[in-house]
Amino acid sequence: MSAELLKTLIIVITVSIAIFRVILNELDVRSSAQALAGKPSEDTVKAVAYTKAKHRFENANILIQMVLVLCFLIFGWFGQFQQLIAANIQGQLWQDFVFLISLLGGLFVFGIPFSVYRTFVLEAKFGFNRTTIATFILD
Question: What is the pTM of this model?
Fold first, then answer.
């Protein structure tokens, strides 16, 4: 399998997974909206509004992550990063280890603003947040 074919396959899989996740979120929003039929309680209305807001936020997060991964794939940043590591670290096992740990660390740091927004804005808006900044940092 050629490198270009593999790259195209990874792009198709990445986009397909993102689309699938967004569709699942939208289906969940639609099914939760059915709970509003008749005379729903105030708690039901609040739960449906939270579900909609949460899934809309998750959809934005999914799409932003997809664009980031696609940029890394299309512009060859994964390869450039791997070459940088290979030039500075001896041994394939250590190079792979540093590459994976760096990617995981980068994803973790990239996800922090989304987590902060989800906890302190989205959940607080619906009264679900009891987390303090200190607890958030410790977690």
Answer: 0.82
